[in-house]
Amino acid sequence: MTNVNKKIKAGILGASGYTGAEAMRLLLRHPGVDVILLTADRKAGQSVEEVYPHLGGYGLPDMISVSEADWTTVDVVFCGLPHGTTQEIIATLPASVKVVDLSADFRLRDPDTYAEWYGHTHQAMDLQKEAVYGLTEFNRDDVKNARLVACPGCYPTAVLLAMVPLVAAGLIDPKDLVIDAKSGVTGAGRGLKQNTLFSEAGEGLSPYSVAKHRHAPEIEQEIAKAVGVPANDIRVNFVPHLVPMSRGELVTCHVKLSEGKTAADLKKHFQSVFENEPFVRVLSENAVPQTQMVRGSNLCVINVFEDRIPGRATVIASIDNLVKGSSGQAVQNMNLMFGFDETLGLEQAPLFP
């Protein structure tokens, strides 16, 4: 294990966004990390307190532009920039710097799929070849040895924790997955958007990107990998919804059971797979996962319910989209990359109410 008395130095690209703020919040309590570099082009020259008052007084550096950053001074970079931008910057970093990418730039392994869903060709395919998909619970060994980790999107994190164990074990039909997903408005980022204005997002529930959300091919890629088939052999029915709350995410997955299997078999398998996982909790009996159970934490709570339709079951999982669905999972991966205890800096219990 890395000696926490010798701290590693971290930089955050895109520190003025929600994921950047959450990374700062978590790393402030990490005994093995000093945050020494923060970039935010539109906020360059401003203090952290000016951008995020709740993080003032902790001695964090002022925000600077990317062009001003000296990447030779850091051991690891957390990238919270929009897709496309990250590829260009990471390609210029010294080979000695490890990268934890929170954008979508290195999640999709197939360049044609990336171009189809993100509207432009991938600019760093050499780096893509070395990127490790950072769903920690299933790729732990690869993450430990990685230089570049691509953290999953928030929806794929919750969905894959709920689905991968079941499809990999042959307990459900991987070609009959119906996923109803809901997330707080921070999932849309901090930029000004009409649909996330208080008067438009408040007091209502809105589906969006119906049948065309960019997280769908990511989910399909990892389900296919777990089953051992080409990615284009899997299609999921995935519909996300915007919920008028700041943070939190809940996915309800409707599945078809394999011949002779029951909802009880699914739950028993979850209990076996996640028994020793520090951040996945299989709920007891008929307890229903709720966003209130995970707020501010790196936890995922999950449970299985028998459907009224014979041969089907409902799997529900909940995470905090900004923590386990983003910056918390990034810190979890960084811990593995540098030999820290996996839970370091992530011990905070959920906030309630």
Task: Please provide a written account of the structure.
This protein has 353 residues and is an alpha/beta fold. The chain has two domains: 8-130, Rossmann fold (3-Layer(aba) Sandwich); 155-321, Dihydrodipicolinate Reductase, domain 2 (2-Layer Sandwich), CATH 3.30.360.10. It has helices at residues 18-28, 48-51, 85-90, 111-118, 125-130, 136-144, 154-168, 198-201, 215-227, 263-273, 323-337; strands at 8-13, 33-39, 63-64, 76-79, 98-101, 132-133, 148-150, 172-184, 206-207, 237-243, 249-257, 280-282, 300-306, 312-319. The strands form two sheets. A seven-stranded parallel β-sheet has the order 3-2-1-4-5-7-6, with helices on one face. Strands 9-10-8-11-14-13-12 form a seven-stranded mixed β-sheet. Helix 1 packs across helix 11 (323-337) and helix 7 (154-168) packs parallel to helix 9 (215-227). The chain is globular and about 60 Å long. The two termini are 36 Å apart. The mean pLDDT is 94.
Percentage beta strand: 15-25%
User: Based on DSSP secondary structure assignment, what is the total number of beta strands?
Assistant: 14
Shape: globular
Number of discrete helical segments: 11
Helix and strand pattern: EHEHEEHEHHEHEHEHEHEEHEEEH
List the domain count as a whole number: 2
Secondary structure: elements and pairs:
Elements: E1 8-13, H1 18-28, E2 33-39, H2 48-51, E3 63-64, E4 76-79, H3 85-90, E5 98-101, H4 111-118, H5 125-130, E6 132-133, H6 136-144, E7 148-150, H7 154-168, E8 172-184, H8 198-201, E9 206-207, H9 215-227, E10 237-243, E11 249-257, H10 263-273, E12 280-282, E13 300-306, E14 312-319, H11 323-337
Parallel strand pairs: 1-2, 1-4, 2-3, 4-5, 5-7, 6-7, 8-10, 12-13
Antiparallel strand pairs: 8-11, 9-10, 11-14, 13-14
Helix pairs in contact: 1-11, 6-11, 7-9
